[in-house]
Amino acid sequence: MKKNYWPVAIVGIILFGVLIISVGVVIAIKNPAIDEEMYGGKKRDIDERINSILQEQNEFESSAKAFLQMGEESLALQTPYRIKAPKKSFVPPKFALPLSLRLEMQSPIYIHSVKLIITSFMQDVPDSNPIAFSTKNAQIYTPDSSLTFAKDGRYKLCFEIQYSQNRDTPPTKTAYFEQEIFYASNAAHAN
Prior knowledge:
It contains three helices and ten strands, in the order H-E-E-H-H-E-E-E-E-E-E-E-E. The mean pLDDT is about 80. The protein has two domains: about 1-30; about 35-185, Immunoglobulin-like, CATH 2.60.40. About 15% of the residues are buried. The longest helix has 25 residues, at about 5-30. The chain is of the alpha+beta class. An eight-stranded antiparallel sheet has the order 4-3-5-8-7-6-9-10. It is elongated, with a radius of gyration of 24 Å.
């Protein structure tokens, strides 16, 4: 009688499948998916309250326009929720100092705080700690500390603006703006 190897092949395929699944589980445990922080919260939290976030953003944009002033150049900041994906040929503006955030108020709101987080597109460069901005005239906000970049390359400037309808109300609403820039260390960067 001829030996039949089909049962051995079936058991081998099952064991191979179990091995592949086990390797996948080990990789997933050692490298967990990071629930990244974005716009003041975890992605899951942002997804749950996106409607209220967009309502606050629209409310701010109807009251003020935000511009990023880099040297002589003034760029209108956009909300991250409406930015279209850049074309492959997109070249972000070059970073220049002095850097400031200019707000053109169209109706009265009170700005409680402005923070900047610098995010790198390079994996080996961590995001910056929030950099606070201050103002002397309620329209132009400048960083309280000097801006530093780890290396030349593309960065995203994420502005978080906490505001309310009047000075006496605590900051209850937040608006976010962002702008991609290109940093090159050969330019003059004194703050």
